[in-house]
Amino acid sequence: KTRVPEGLKNIPTLSFLDLLIEIFTKVGPDKRWENTRDVLEKEGIGKLWFNGQWTITVTDLGLVKDIMTKTDLYPKALLEESFPTSLITKYYGTNVVLSNGDVWKRHRRIANPSFRNLPVHVFVESATKLLNVMEKIDNEPIEVKSLMHRLALDVLGKAAFGFDFNNLEDPNNVYVTTYNEVMAELSKPLYFVFSFLDYLPRFEALRKIAKLNSLYDEIVESKHKAMKMGEIEKKINNKSADLLEHMVYACNDPDNPTLTNEELRHDLAIFMLAGHDTTANALTTILYLLAIHKDTQKKVRDEILRVLGDNLIPSVEQQKELKYMNMVINENLRLYPPVAQLPRRLNSQEIKFRNHVIPAKTPIVLFIYGIHHSSRNWKDPEKFIPERFENEKHDHYSWLGFGGGNRLCLGINFSLIEQRIMLCALLRKYEVSLPADSIHKDKLQIEPEVSGTSGPHPVPLIFKRRTE
Ligand code: HEM
């Protein structure tokens, strides 16, 4: 299996040893970029032997566009095909993120309306709770990463399926601990590199997954009961329904294909990953950037005070007016994309790219971090310059914070509303700075997390209450 297919021979090789070291030393996508930049900036493509086969890493924007828009030619690699016996497959199954063709369309059609009708009150209540919790730890460095994860988990639990993890107030609650333990099991590097180890039984991990699954199952069941009692329809009419309630409601539409309870559970499991860890990491890195760029922090705050006046929470119209904040959000996602590389695609047919012939079913990885940090796509790519989103022209596919094409993130608005509301609440009340002895003093330290996502190491920041 190590023999290079003929058509890939001229594609430069990326070092497998570097990758192994990166995985086992748990360094972030910045190191991966450092190790591959020379090849990828020059060629836009590299080949890598990984997990028993030759895979392709792509940063060339022409090929990126093809991959994002021709989803039949570049379907996603499905978990049950790539890792049939893995715990990841058991936990996430087939869901809206990891499916193709008609199955994906069925999930997406059911999920779509729920993302157009977000229960915004949940974000507002959580912002108030966040401030209350912070009140008690005012003026000491606060570890923002865990705080933002607790916040985002509460928001997701309530907005997605009406469950209050209450993680902001109770960091050790039993469901949170189980969720975190399951995530820790799923991100063990050993099983990624040597997937045959997945054939060994992992009883403890399976027990934890079963516990979490039974919570999701109970929630799905309770929504079906509420549906029968007519409660969901009432909530939809008064715009307080959560995502799962919208989905269960859509499943009852005779014109819509339905999802089974197991499929709904798998969607909930993937929402927890796609919607909670990503936004939590984005909020953490943006607070870090504002802490080290005081001028930007002031500009964002001035804009908040100007646009919101006495309002604490921005309305939908006001959120559009927060133009500078929106540029800062984009620049943060460019510098520190929480999804640093997209889930793998497998080309359904042989592909010709320049003088290379990529055989059908070659795993293809789209390296978002590399695309965002390439000097071919961005001027001074390592610099934090929010204004570039106003002043600089850049290729549509050079910014992929939320992916692109047909498989564009469903939760964009969910995440953006959450980020804007939290930033308004925090910056109005606090001035944020980085402690002098921070490990991030010279550079934000990033680590890989589950399935291609990445985030910073813990980030303690000082929140000083504003006097004005
Ligand atoms: C900063 C926060 C977020 C980031 C950076 C992010 C990033 C992404 C990216 C890059 C993709 C494309 C994946 C691919 O093409 O393979 C994606 C897809 C998706 N995201 Fe997000 N996401 C965020 C927040 C959310 C939230 C809050 C939710 C839901 C609550 C969500 C749900 C989804 C779903 C369901 C998809 C799959 C769409 C499809 O394939 O049809 N995301 N996200």
TrEMBL record:
Binding-site list for heme: 409
Presence of keyword Cytoplasm: no
Cofactor(s), names only, from the UniProt record: heme
Pfam families: p450
Gene Ontology MF terms in the entry: heme binding; iron ion binding; monooxygenase activity; oxidoreductase activity, acting on paired donors, with incorporation or reduction of molecular oxygen
Key words, A-Z: Heme, Iron, Metal-binding, Monooxygenase, Oxidoreductase, Signal
Superkingdom of source: Eukaryota
The UniProt record lists the keyword Hydrolase: no
Xref: InterPro entries: Cyt_P450, Cyt_P450_CS, Cyt_P450_E_grp-I, Cyt_P450_sf, Cytochrome_P450_Monoox
PANTHER family found in the cross-reference section: BIFUNCTIONAL ALBAFLAVENONE MONOOXYGENASE_TERPENE SYNTHASE (PTHR24291:SF50), CYTOCHROME P450 FAMILY 4 (PTHR24291)
Similarity comment: family membership: Belongs to the cytochrome P450 family.
Protein name listed in UniProt: Cytochrome P450
Organism this protein belongs to: Rhizophagus irregularis
